[in-house]
Amino acid sequence: MQKILAFKKSILGLFIFLGIVATLLLFQLKFSFDFSQFFPEGDEDLVFYQEFIQEFGVDDSFLLIAIEKEPTVFETDFLERFDAFSKTSKDIPYVIENQSLTTLFYPLKTSFGYSRLPIIHIGDSLKYDKDWQKIKKDSLFTGLLVDEKATSMVVSLETEDTLDYEQCIALLTALRNSLEKHGFNDYHLLGRAFFYEALVNMQKEELIKTTIFATLLVVLVLFLVYRRITVVAIALSSIILALLIFLGVLSLLGKELNTLSSFYPILLLIVGTSDVIHIMDDYLAKLRSGLQRQIAMANTLKEVGISTLLTSVTTAIGFASLVTSKSSVVSGFGINSALGVLIAFVTIVGFACSLLLLIDTKYVLPKKNSSSKWTAGLTRVNQFTQHFPRGILVASLLFMGICIWGLSRINTNYQIKESLPSGSAIAADFEFFQKNYGGFRPLEVAVSAQGEYKVTDFFVAQEVERVVQRLKQFSAVRNVQSANAFYKGLHKANNLNQSDYFILPKERETFEKYKREVQKIARKPLGKFVNTEETKARITAKVLDIGLDTLNTVYEEFNSFVTTEIDSNLVKFRLTGTGILLDKNAYYIKDSLLQGLLMGLLLVALVMAFLFKNLKLVLVSLLPNFLPLLFAAALLGFLGIPLEATISVVFAIVFGIAVDDTIHFLGRYKIGLSKGLNKEEALQVTFAETGRALIITTLILFFGFLVLLFSVHTPSTTIGMLVSVTLLTALILDLLLLPVLIRKLL
């Protein structure tokens, strides 16, 4: 060990070089957001959807612009400007098609063929009232292109699929310029491009904000503990360097930062600080005992360094347990975090230890020795565990029972709006569309004709219409559209454009005539609903963001209807779309979470078995770390917080970090036994020499994750609260329950 430490200057130079390279690589880091990242990989519904979009395209390539006008949109100047904007919106980059009430027409059958009647007679204000009454009676466009009070109208844009961040920004910039040019300031946006812009901007802001807050916290805590600017500078520079190298590695590997990326600075700053404190506390204690720097550092790395390495490994295992998640965002976060924890350990051991050896001891040793106060306080804690072991065990069992009760109350009634930045424009716009239109959540129904039938056959169309009408009966489902709209529209056009005739014709011959006419005058629009072979079709709709558990009831009732009421010999129906896949991901969270934690628990047990070589000690170490996991789950249940993909990372964070204190405690306890101390003496030394570092590091973790309470991202706020409270609980269990278990079971 001392031979390696002799190369301290070379090691220091190497890490400085790596830091410079990593800083340059930061400029290549990319941010991304895509709902598909949350799709359950390998799921049969995902495979079906991927095949479905090859024929019909994705269901979220749209951008809606709702423009408000109080008290009514039926005002000549507004309609003229709205119409001008609608027509020019097709020229915006990456826009394929546009649609609004001023660009659409009613078809009307005359003796000369089909003519087009404007839905709104823009140039004739005397017809506005009649136009509005007609729109309301038809109910074809209310809640879709105009709200029910006629105080806003929508321009619907179909955009190119798979737009990246830069393309989304170009589209939105051109759109906003066009809105400003036409004199519109009071508008609302909804669509994938707008989500992409808003959430990536949130990621950048959160990354910067959490880094600054967490850094200030670390500086404050380190200064209060060591009262030495030099020590604070060494610790902080080591941790910042580790963060830079980690982000540089992510950039080098081509990783893109996503919604969970704001956790990286906190994780590395907090976990890195924990490593620094454990190593530095022991090193400074050895310096105070009179050891030379080289020998003190060598002994520290032998005694505490091994435990710190193992805590880093177990923390990494905790994060790596997320690899079992079917969500690529969550599994990627787990892998990246595990890598970051290991990078932090290597950087701190290499850089911080080398720096400590190069600096004179007078600049790092505290001016006052406050360890006696810590020792006295921790001795009282140890005595408490000696005098009240039964009370501690009973309280722990009662605590476990309460946690199990809370666990049973967990729900998955997740809503998309909870992932939006609170108080932001996108959250306000999302709520506006929820209230006045069909919301954001797309719903697709795949229609498959059976045998020799085609989806455009008369009897199949009748079955499709029954499904359409059933969907309309669900209060949460809006804007239901299918290929039948073309046939119903022609039926209405052939009957003086009367709203009562917007239905499928009852006679097969009439239907066949309309079918031929649709092929002539609306082949391209029909192609959005029916494939070329006419064997498959789609029904599109929007679903309000009313919560996953509530939506599951809708899905179950729909599936029951198509199973029992529809002739499956003619046609089959299957729910699909991005909304369904996002919802289904929740089904896997509990299973993948349990599998991952069990796997992590097994791997940590193996690591501890290797370290302690005592099966009883392994069992004793796992019990205090199982309760914090139960407590985290119980908090979700008691607080009514829905379990969803991003929240699920709480358990990996808690498991990965909470076990660190146990390893340090048991590692010091084992060293005491190896020196010939009896059980009580070893425990007393453990409390005196390790308890201080455990409390300090946990307090840093507690306040560090509380930084997330300042986040505008609701899941991040929830995670910060859960992790902080749970890690504090883990410390209490390590200081109270762990000594009792050692006395009872070892």
Task: Label this structure with key terms.
alpha+beta, 4-stranded antiparallel β-sheet
Your description of this structure?
The chain has 746 residues and is of the alpha+beta class. The protein is built from 24 helices and twelve strands. The chain has helices spanning 2-5, 8-25, 44-56, 76-88, 128-138, 165-181, 192-226, 229-252, 263-288, 293-320, 328-358, 371-387, 389-407, 425-436, 458-472, 484-493, 508-521, 523-526, 548-564, 578-612, 615-639, 649-674, 679-706, 714-745; strands spanning 30-31, 62-68, 95-99, 105-110, 113-118, 152-159, 187-191, 256-257, 441-449, 477-481, 536-543, 571-576. The strands form four sheets. It has a four-stranded antiparallel sheet with strand order 3-6-2-7. A hairpin with a 2-residue loop joins β4 (105-110) and β5. α9 (263-288) packs parallel to α11 (328-358) and α12 (371-387) packs across α24 (714-745). The radius of gyration is 32 Å and the shape is elongated.
